[in-house]
User: Fold these one by one.
Assistant:
Number 1:
Amino acid sequence: KADFIQAIGDAIASFPEMSCLTPRGRYTIKVYPTFLGAHGKTFDYKIPFSSITCLFLLPHNDQRQMFFVLGLDPPIRQGQTRYPFLILQMLSDETCELTLAMAEDELQEKYENKLTQEMTGPMFEVFSRLMRVMVGKKITVPGSFKKNNNQCAISCSCRATSGYLYPLDKGFIFVHKPALFIKFEDVATVNFERMATSGASRSFDFDVETKDGNVYHFSSLMKDDYGRLHAFITEKKLRIKNKAKSHVTYNDEMSGDSSDEHDAYLERMKAEGEEMDSEDEDSDFVAKGSGSDDDLEYDSNVSKDENEGDDSGGEESTERAKKRKKEQSKSRPAKKRKQEPTKKNKKDPKAPKKPLSAYMLWLQEVRPSLKKKYPGFSVAEIAKKAGEKWKTVTDKSKWEKEAVKAKEKYKKNLAEYQSTGKYSGGPTSPPKKKSQSPVKRKSGASSSTKYKSEEYIDSDEDNSTDDEKPKGNKEGIKSKTVNNTTRARSKTDEEMVSLGEEESESEAELTDGGDESD
């Protein structure tokens, strides 16, 4: 069915930036004498009027939008995806003033006064009138089907995509994705599913089987729409697959009234509902203070005579207590394990630092002036202002060249570092002094003689030891203590100096890292 299209001449009318649902996007619709052109940002389509099979104008349920659907055969393609329907979306209150690019005499000759040169009104009406005349086909609108709130569409889902099902006079149409049109003459049977009477489900499913064997499944239809849809299907004389499931009206099913005929489906649904109710009895929710067994309090200080006198009651109470503990343990939320913090690999100080980008090089030059201009701003606010200013910079070649040079230098240093473990431009840090460990003195080797305090020395021993003690012994002890204190002070001073050097190095690394992050 491929054909060549003569795309010569000007467009009769143009509708800019129209919202299209399938294929999705915004397209400028141009109407030519023999075809329809859709021009988008990525794709352009030329649709001959001979390939348009049907036209639909469908109101949205919110009464604020309108769908205009064009059936296409052959369908248009976007890559490997085919679109047999072109669906345009327009606002109901959007007006349009259109001037056709044709003279009045030419319009009278070609279109027999069906079109005027000046056309005004709502957008969907103007577009519908123009397409009806140009394509030469009638536009199908919703017919007799109306819901309780006078809406024409049933909200449902098809292939896990929500949309609207429109029961028309000659078929069903579903918009918008995937768009489907099922004629009544092609329908073999319809089927209602999940019409449970227990009240657990508020929706049902609707299946349409065609004579070709294809089954279209529509799910999540609200039960309020069941009665109108069932009446519409019986009016159109469509064959219902299982009449036992759907010959009872929705109100009769909910009230539980049964007809004289035996309904096997209704009996099965009632049995399933009773089973569900019996299963739910085990897990009914009991509010606090309702008087249930779980809410009873038990006295732990019971005498032995009472326990011996009523063994059966004690066993029941222990069982109830165990049951209560189990329920409490289930109701308690599970404790979350604390995630152990992951150890980050320490950065090698000898490794070359990553190069700054053009923006960071520019920011180093501009930051002092921004701080002067905005003295009360925080770091984040200054960074924001710098980003706004960077967008307005037109000539960035200076910093981009510097960034390229820095990147090349970084690559060279990185290669040198990976091969040798260091590079020529790396930092040269002085060797750290090894901290001298304090010398431990043995009690036995410190002195050959032992000294006692004055409390435990007798007069006789004192006289005898005074003669034996060498002169200047007390002075030697004092000098040793003084030397020990001076050594300890010198060691603490050395440790403080080394700590100061390490803190200065860490501060330098932090400042370098802060500049890189900024």
Number 2:
Amino acid sequence: MDDSALSQIENGTAEEVNTVLRNFNSQNGRAFEFPDLVKDRKKKLIDGIAQKLNDPNMALCYTACLETLRILSRDPGEVEVMTTREVLKVMQRHAGLDSGVEESRDHSPSLKPDNKNVVVEALKCLCNLIYNSSAARRTCSYNGCIESIVRRLKTYRDPDLAHEVKFFDMRMLFLLTALVADIRSKIRHDLHGLTYLMETLDLIIKTSVNHEQQKGSLDTDIPLADNEVDLACEILKVLFNLTVHVDKTNLEEEEEAHFMRMVSILHDLLVCKTESSDKREELVSNTVNLLTTMPPTCYEELMTPITEGTLEVHAKKENEYEGQNMEAINALLEFLELRLDRAEEQQLQNLKDQLTPIFNCLWESSRNNRVIRKFLRSKVLPPLTDVTRRPEEGTHIRNKLCRLMTSPVMDIKEMVADFLFVLCKENVIRLVKYTGYGNAAGLLASRGLMHGGQGNVGKYSSESEESDTEEYSKAREHINLVTGHIDPVRPDPLAGMSEEQKEYEAVKLVEQLDRLTRDGIVQPMKVGSDGRPVPVEHILQLQEEITAENESEENGC
């Protein structure tokens, strides 16, 4: 931008300023850096725009001015020229977030931001600056912006309030709560933010249904529009920031009631339909993230009781379990399977980040709610019928989880093993039955359970849930516990060998293992008295261990 353009912005009419800025915006609409706009020239441009935004007679160019500021605010370099108190105050006022504490006599009522485009552009500017500047974060945390957003949140029922305004309100609140931890408690307690945010989520769900009913439709299973999903996701992210560090073990009665209500709303979101599958995945993903911050006792709100005659209306038969509608739990399981399929197709860029929330959610709910655990087990670990294939072979969700039990990503395989172990009521024999000892070895070694036994059984009921099929009962004695399936018949590799040849091959094998051990390539282990693996110093120690066990058994007889 040359001196002539800057002069027009400073001294020109609203039409001239609008023309100059529109040209600049069209040329730089996709730019994120402005090397040709040196600091002094950039400051002069911003000061000139701020002057126009303060002039009630320049309303024609307000939108173009704020579009220019939005484009410039993308550049984190030299952002301080845009974060002065005066410039931020102008943006705040045009975004409709003026706290009202200071009423300037120089500003006429016409400056009140009733133009949707002006408000949205101002909110976008503030969002960019909050993301790029710590100074902007500090200012917007304590200049009344937060109070004004919460105050406007109460008016979201007004059909005249544009969706874009609501969306960028929540985007701005998300950025502030994510980057400024000090304000979270204030929003939760002083401003009652949890209540208003939950009411808005509830409003989104109910508004969609009411809108269709007003058009004459009797269908209550109405999909959420894409823009409604976008707004809901932003609210869910704000709620996550507000609840993630709350101590869930020492809640007051009012706080616990808030969380119970929140999980009830999350249940409604999980069973909601959306217009597109991508939006459905995004909605469930953000819902799962928020569920991970909820107290374990609140997971019961994910189920709803089924009364006689309501099953066909509210739930499919497959979602009924012990008199409860498990549709929301089934939605979580479907989301897990979707992520597992993406992982196998290598479409997830960060496997740990994508899978951790859903595994934590299912693990926590299974540990703390008997009905949820039993339902998930019926879906994930159904009674075995085909034991001719390894547990990790196949397309069932159990097969996919067993494949991840040997993942090179340590956190992933531990989460999978922990989840399956909880579904088995932390019973080693039951876990090995469904996964094979080889797949479960990592979990058993870390918990000192390689000799068998059980983990923390105090959290589970004592009733038996075993239901072996007839096929499994007949094949039980032939199953290889290490692989978890019946080994196919193979020819004996020692057939036709003399005793001398067998002895020669055995000695050769021992020598090779000893060389691998001495070279540090492998480390032989044995199971110690604490149920965990311990290193073996020499390969012959394994033979001595076997001999000692045989002698012990003979003496016992």
